[in-house]
DNA sequence: TGTTAGCACTCTTCGGTGTCGAGTGCTAAC
DNA sequence: GTTAGCACTCGACACCGAAGAGTGCTAACA
């Protein structure tokens, strides 16, 4: 049936109901809607339309004599078709917040994951929701800029690698005591010369043999060093999960039941689940929105997650997800994630995209509508 | 008046009331106490004693016809004088838990603060309360074991320091481009020779001049390098706060009110406050217990904090605090903190104290009593 | 003198009842 | 197709009374 294609009035009413519900968290009645500006219908008409919308599955009623509440399907339509573009990007953080982005994101050296973490913190503050940052799995695509092996004491050394995105990694090397410090330095210099500019997985036996030849250290003697380098990279690849503003969940009345809140906070601590949750959504380069039961994790059925994946220079930095009740301020969350994308990309001065990033709206999920004045107070 | 010195029977009743209250969280009535084994008095007698204890400030009544609830003063006496030694140390973690200590605490190299963090996690799991780990301020007392300056690219280098407790620290050095990589290596070697074995604050102008002389780099040219070293140490000194098991707060019925829970969880996120809270208690080398209003932080008046400070080889590693409701299982918390102290000290093989640590009970706060069989089911 | 039994009293908890109001669905009129 | 009117439903809230836990006090007892 083509009945699923709503007419304009139904869409307007649905949007009004959802906007209202997002704001008040009260089931909204026909009278409330009919009183809105630019809503020129009587409560009775609205009632009929709302009954239709309920039949179609976009709204539901907590009990017979209550107003209507959006269903997951309703929210889906809302984020896909009903939110206007301006609502999404008409949004600017305060000066203070901008400063934070600068000091946080623009620091030019150090762990790249710091950037995502700071961004996550910012997003949590901007949206007043919990944000989850997942970094990592970028190691494979990054190149070695410099490396050094630092002798610590007999049998112990420290491998230090600087990657091309200025991340500094180190790992301890335990070697049998046959290599003296001077030799180790020579190994270090040669490895640096040979490996710089390459990705870690490009290191091959030829290179190792060449180092072996130049330094007089046997292949097996070199292995602990090579292992140390790999361990560095492994550290960088290790996905890190960072949650920001978890307590904010408690501000939302949907979690005023401690048991419920506890359940979700416990899920937040399950790093494996969070990685799945965020990563699963990060295939696309845009925003992905998961509403209520669309989340596969049990216990998140009353939550929505909006995820954005960030990459700079083609390097995947990580993803940030915003977690809140399904009754979430979607426009604001989308705006915040896109805003930070712009900053993050701009801060790293990727030529050609820095300024344009804000216009890169998520593909597919969002569509611009220019009809009726669906303004929201 | 010497009335504050309670007779044996009052103490027994007080302890019974507190034990009972800790277990059930119900105001405890005279009948309940009189039914306990080894409590050979009628409810009426108990009632009289309880009335006295209330008058003395050790108990209080939520309302006229309710049972009694311990006051902060009551808990104070409880932890100071009433808990038996066996209750405190008769406690062993499971095999799984022991493994965790081993893999976590015994890792022989890396950031020392990891140890405290793992210990904190363990304590939270053992006690089912929230634990707060504060590390740091140890940098000043640690010595440099090895250091290295790694050239990264023109104008940029990386300072790496290994301290005598095997902590590895690094910081980025930005220098004007007058020092070439070879010279930098020479500087590195000379600094390593001169500074190894010293504490960072022992580095003086004489040493720097000596490096300057040997390498031909001017004093001012060397300063960025020295600054980088200091920055490393600053990183180590930077107190880090790590909270474990914050969600567990929500398990306790005293925080079933979301507002209350939120308030405390927000406090937990305030690193500055947590550092104050934990550090303030860490002057002594034993356990410090702060009950309810004894905590200076407003909003923690219904909580107790038990803090232990850990040091190995005279080096202060940090402190761990356990945060829970005043109705906390003090014996268990004390046991857990002492148990971990033993492990932490043992793991680092401090001769002479490893085995004895468990007997080092906190000075002053705890006293052994051998009277009446105050057994607890 | 210390202990205990008995009893009246207090105060919370909880289930039941009644009212109020918001909101609906339906019908009939416009 | 829209709207006014009206009966109906159902949750929220306040009120009431019974039940029960626990107390303080008094008087009797060892």
Summarize the SSE layout with pairings.
The structure is a homodimer.
Chain A: H1 8-24, H2 30-34, H3 43-55, E1 59-60, E2 69-70, H4 72-82, H5 85-89, H6 95-105, H7 113-127, E3 130-135, E4 144-153, E5 156-163, E6 168-174, H8 181-195, H9 205-215, H10 219-237, E7 240-244, H11 258-269, H12 271-280, E8 287-291, E9 303-312, E10 315-325, H13 330-347
Antiparallel strand pairs in A: 1-2, 3-7, 3-10, 4-5, 5-6, 8-9, 9-10
Helix pairs in contact in A: 1-3, 1-4, 6-7, 7-13, 8-9
The structure holds a DNA duplex (30 and 30 nucleotides).
Report on the structure:
The structure is a homodimer of 377-residue chains. With 377 residues, chain A is of the alpha+beta class. Helix content of chain A is 43%, strand content 18%. In chain A, the strands form 3 sheets. Chain A has a 5-stranded antiparallel β-sheet with strand order 7-3-10-9-8, with helices on both faces. In chain A, strands 4-5-6 form a 3-stranded antiparallel β-sheet. In chain A, 43% of the residues are buried. Chains A and B meet through strand 4, strand 5, strand 6 and helix 11 of A and strand 4, strand 5, strand 6 and helix 11 of B. Chain A binds a DNA duplex (30 and 30 nucleotides) through helix 3.
Which pair of chains forms the biggest interface, and how many residues does each contribute?
A-B, 29 and 29 residues
Question: What composes the largest sheet of chain A?
Answer: 5 strands, antiparallel
- Rg of chain A, alpha carbons: 26 Å
Uncertain stretches of chain A? 104-110, 348-377
β-sheet strand percentage of chain A? 15-25%
Morphology call of chain A: elongated
> Which bin fits the share of residues in helices of chain A?
40-55%
Number of strands of chain A: 10
Look at the helices and sheets of chain A and give the structural class: alpha+beta
Q: What is the H/E string of chain A?
A: HHHEEHHHHEEEEHHHEHHEEEH
Oligomer: homodimer
The strand line-up of the biggest sheet of chain A is 7-3-10-9-8
Give the end-to-end Cα distance of chain A, rounded to a whole number of Å.
Answer: 35 Å
Count of DSSP helices of chain A?
13
Summed over residues and divided by their number, the pLDDT of chain A gives a mean of 78
């Amino acid at each position: 049936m083509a009945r699923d294609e709503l007419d304009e009035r139904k869409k307007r009413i649905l949007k009004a109901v959802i906007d209202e519900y997002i704001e008040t968290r009260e089931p909204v009645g026909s009278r409330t809607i009919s009183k809105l500006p630019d809503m020129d219908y009587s409560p009775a008409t609205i009632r009929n339309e709302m009954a239709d919308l309920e039949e179609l599955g976009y709204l539901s009623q907590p009990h017979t004599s209550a107003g209507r509440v959006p269903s997951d399907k309703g929210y889906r339509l809302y984020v896909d078709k009903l939110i206007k573009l301006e609502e999404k990007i008409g949004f600017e953080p305060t000066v203070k917040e901008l400063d934070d982005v600068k000091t946080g994101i623009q620091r030019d050296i150090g762990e790249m994951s710091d950037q995502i973490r700071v961004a996550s913190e910012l997003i949590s503050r901007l949206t007043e929701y919990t944000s989850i940052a997942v970094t990592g799995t970028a190691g494979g695509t990054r190149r070695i800029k410099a490396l050094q092996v630092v002798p610590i004491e007999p049998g112990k050394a420290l491998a230090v690698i600087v990657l091309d995105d200025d991340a500094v990694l180190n790992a301890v090397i335990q070697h049998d005591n046959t290599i003296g410090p001077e030799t180790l330095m020579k190994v270090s210099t040669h490895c640096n010369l040979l490996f710089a500019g390459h990705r870690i997985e490009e290191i091959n036996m030829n290179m190792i043999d060449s180092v072996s030849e130049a330094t007089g250290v046997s292949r097996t003697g070199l292995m602990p060093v090579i292992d140390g380098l790999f361990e560095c990279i492994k550290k960088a690849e290790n996905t890190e999960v960072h949650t920001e503003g978890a307590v904010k969940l408690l501000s939302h009345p949907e979690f005023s039941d401690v048991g419920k809140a506890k359940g979700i906070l416990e899920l937040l601590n399950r790093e494996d689940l969070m990685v799945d949750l965020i990563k699963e959504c990060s295939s696309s380069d845009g925003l992905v929105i998961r509403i209520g039961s669309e989340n596969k994790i049990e216990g998140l059925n009353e939550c929505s997650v909006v995820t954005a994946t960030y990459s700079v220079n083609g390097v995947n930095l990580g993803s940030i997800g915003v977690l809140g009740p399904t009754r979430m301020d979607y426009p604001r969350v989308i705006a915040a994630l896109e805003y930070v994308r712009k900053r993050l990309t701009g801060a790293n001065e990727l030529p050609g995209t820095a300024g344009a990033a804000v216009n890169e709206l998520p593909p597919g999920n969002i569509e611009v509508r220019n009809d009726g004045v669906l303004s929201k107070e």
